[in-house]
Design brief:
21% of the residues lie in helices and 21% in strands. By secondary structure, it is of the alpha+beta class. It has 2 domains: 99 residues, Monooxygenase; 133 residues, Thrombin, subunit H, CATH 2.40.10.480. Strands 1-2-3-4 form a 4-stranded antiparallel β-sheet, with no helix packed on it. Strands 5-6-7-8 form a 4-stranded antiparallel β-sheet. Strands 9-10-11-12 form a 4-stranded antiparallel β-sheet, with no helix packed on it. A hairpin with a 5-residue loop joins strand 6 and strand 7. It is elongated and about 80 Å long. This is F-box domain-containing protein. It comes from Tulasnella calospora MUT 4182.
């Protein structure tokens, strides 16, 4: 009998013997499996909590343990305050275990916890980070991939792009509401703070790449030459202050910049982005607001010394704001 035609109560019984990592993977298999997990999160994650040792197994299956009974245990840290579901209960336990492991995360010999769902407050192996002082957020990339925007005040992840889309150790720059990072295959992606895109004073038309639109966690409107952005009939209505598109830390795709030669070094000093190529020994200056290449500079080879040419290895470039 195919697994997906089993009665829901039997599926739930099977899932009660699985660790959380496998429950999450099960929910990603298909829409129907996802709905089974979503509709029965309470008993599934309660069973997972017992399986992982977060709670004692229920002595009587017909009288399951109450969530309130395990979250009201006296604790000065308040780490279980405001827990409203068994899923959140498991998430808090995973985060605490990760914190006890320290910044380096689990060792190579340990089983690494699945953080695809419980990752919202834990990021390890940070590669590069930038600060948005206006919205008080941290923008960072990691060695494992992905791009994250976190609240400085609460460490909460406000917005992110997945690991499969942003390469590990991706370079990231930030300035004046624009995130710039290197694409996996080629090119440089530009994303803009959404609140600026829906502000008449700061509005700019843009033409994001189709892949950027597809991967965007928020619906992407059309950006005509004049304000405001326009949503078509296939997307939701124009966002208000309460919708995800218009919240702090959310970004929308702005442009894809394709330099004439393979690039190695990058530096953003708004409104210009300097992209340098070691291969062609050229530097390309892009104007971010218009997404145009405005200047190409040939990099001179260092003079000969002792009859030998000095090697040209670029590790860093700088751009003057003047």
């Amino acid at each position: 009998m195919p697994f997906d035609v089993l009665p829901p109560e039997l599926l739930i019984r099977v899932l009660s013997y699985l660790p959380i990592q496998d429950v999450v993977s099960f929910g990603l298999v298909s829409q129907s499996f996802h709905e089974v997990v979503r509709a029965n999160e309470g008993p599934i994650y309660q069973a997972a909590a017992a399986l992982h040792g977060f709670i004692e197994p229920a002595e009587n299956a017909s009288a399951p343990q109450l969530l309130s009974a395990v979250t009201k245990i006296p604790d000065a840290t308040g780490w279980l305050d405001d827990v409203r579901s068994w899923k959140e209960f498991c998430r808090r336990h995973f985060l605490r275990e990760q914190a006890w492991r320290g910044k380096q995360g689990p060792s190579a010999d340990e089983e690494k916890p699945f953080l695809g769902v419980f990752q919202s407050d834990v990021i390890t192996d940070i590669h590069r980070f930038k600060i948005d002082e206006v919205e008080r957020t941290i923008i960072c990339t990691t060695g494992e991939g992905g791009l994250f925007v976190m609240s400085i005040d609460t460490d909460e992840i406000l917005w992110c792009l997945p690991e499969w889309y942003v390469a590990g150790y991706a370079h990231v720059e930030y300035g004046n509401g624009f995130i710039v990072f290197t694409r996996i295959e080629d090119g440089v992606e530009v994303w803009r703070r959404s609140v600026d895109s829906f502000n008449r004073e700061t509005y700019l038309p843009c033409k994001p790449d189709s892949l950027q639109i597809e991967v965007s966690p928020s619906p992407v409107p059309d950006f005509p030459p004049t304000f405001p952005p326009v949503y078509d009939s296939h997307t939701e209505a124009s966002p208000s202050d309460e919708t995800p598109t218009h919240r702090r830390g959310v970004y929308l795709p702005f442009a894809l910049l394709m330099s004439p030669a393979e690039a190695r070094c990058y530096r953003l000093v708004y409104p210009h982005l300097l992209v340098a190529s070691e291969f062609s020994r050229q530097a390309f200056i892009w104007d971010i607001p218009t997404a145009r290449l405005v200047e190409t500079i040939n990099i001179q080879t260092p003079p000969r010394r002792g009859g030998f040419h000095l090697p040209v290895h670029m590790t860093y470039v700088e751009l003057s704001s003047s």
